[in-house]
Write a sequence for this structure.
C-alpha cells in the first residue's frame, strides 16, 4: 500500500510541476502548488488500495478486545 501511495504522489507532483499542460506552455504549478494534488492523489490511492482485514486477524482482534473489556 505504501508503494502505491508513494507512486501516486510522486507521479502527480512530477506531472503537475514539469509537464506543460496549459495553452501557453506553462505547468499547472504556476497557478497551484503541487503538494495538495499529490496529497489528494495519494489519499485516493490509499482508499482504493485498502482491503478488508483477514478473518484470522479479525478473530484475534475481537478476542483481544473482549479480554480487555472484561478486565
Amino acid at each position: 500500500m505504501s508503494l502505491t501511495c508513494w507512486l501516486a504522489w510522486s507521479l502527480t507532483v512530477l506531472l503537475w510541476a514539469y509537464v506543460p499542460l496549459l495553452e501557453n506552455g506553462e505547468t499547472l504549478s504556476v497557478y497551484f502548488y503541487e503538494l495538495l494534488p499529490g496529497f489528494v492523489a495519494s489519499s485516493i490511492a490509499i482508499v482504493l488500495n485498502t482491503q478488508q482485514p483477514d478473518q484470522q486477524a479479525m478473530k484475534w482482534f475481537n478476542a483481544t478486545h473482549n479480554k480487555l473489556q472484561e478486565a
